[in-house]
Design goal:
- The protein is an alpha/beta fold and 224 residues long.
- The protein contains nine helices and seven strands.
- A five-stranded mixed β-sheet has the order 4-3-5-6-7, with helices on both faces. Strands 1-2 form a two-stranded antiparallel ribbon.
- Helix 4 links the parallel strand 3 and strand 4.
- The N terminus is likely disordered.
């Protein structure tokens, strides 16, 4: 029998933390293991609802048991792909209240869309069937901050600056704006992929951007 918390999660029709309506059918996902995410909007609705639960401290922690682990050992069918920062404080599955096999994540400092990163995202979307591609930045991003105040660094760390510098230049010294601009620019960089653009044109994939707030846990969507 569903707990009181689970029943509450499936009876609310809005996401107060984000102020966004969630399609009613998305609330069937964790009561019906066979629920199929059919559209990009389905996928986005699930992520919005998951982040709301996380922010409100009402997580369901779905698909995190040994049963799910075994079910996905031979096959994966994630419904969303992420280009996220490598920052240890941004655990995508947790902040969106997802579990094993739900999301395909590429993590790299500064959430930059390098060629290798785009190749991985193409695999997630074209081969694994992700319906949503989410570029996720976060507040107080160290990679953006370092690009704004470049100093000598060891190894090839400075190679990240090339990808982030256009956002820094557009922001004119405003770090928060630079973080937003970086998400937008990386979203646009995905457009060099004929695989991703074709899926978008066919209505099979949507690319969205967001900023995760390290202090509150909220994800704020932004226009890409």
């Amino acid at each position: 029998m569903a707990s009181r918390l689970q029943r509450a999660a499936f009876t609310s029709s809005r996401t107060p933390a984000l102020g966004l309506a969630v399609p009613r059918f998305t609330r069937q996902l964790y009561t019906n293991p066979d629920f199929e995410v059919k559209t990009p909007d389905d996928a986005l609705g699930l992520l919005r609802q998951g982040n709301e639960r996380f922010v409100q401290g009402q997580i369901l922690a779905p698909h995190r048991g040994l049963g799910r682990l075994k079910d996905t050992a031979g096959v994966q069918k994630p419904f969303a792909a992420f280009l996220s920062c490598a920052d240890s404080r941004v655990p995508v599955e947790i902040i969106f209240d997802q579990g094993f096999g739900d999301v395909f994540i590429v993590r790299v400092a500064g959430n930059v869309a390098s060629t290798a990163v785009i190749a991985s995202l193409e695999f997630g979307c074209a081969v694994l069937g992700c319906k949503l591609l989410y570029v996720l930045g976060h507040t107080s991003c160290g990679a953006v901050k370092a690009t704004m105040n470049p100093q000598a660094v060891p190894g090839v760390i400075s190679s990240l600056y090339y990808h982030i510098r256009p956002a820094v230049e557009n922001a004119k010294g405003d770090q928060d704006k630079a973080i937003e601009e970086n998400v937008r620019i990386q979203c646009k960089s995905l457009g060099i992929s004929p695989v991703i653009t074709s899926l978008q044109e066919e209505g099979k994939l949507k690319v969205v951007g967001g900023i995760y707030d390290l202090a509150t846990g909220k994800v704020r969507e932004i226009d890409c």
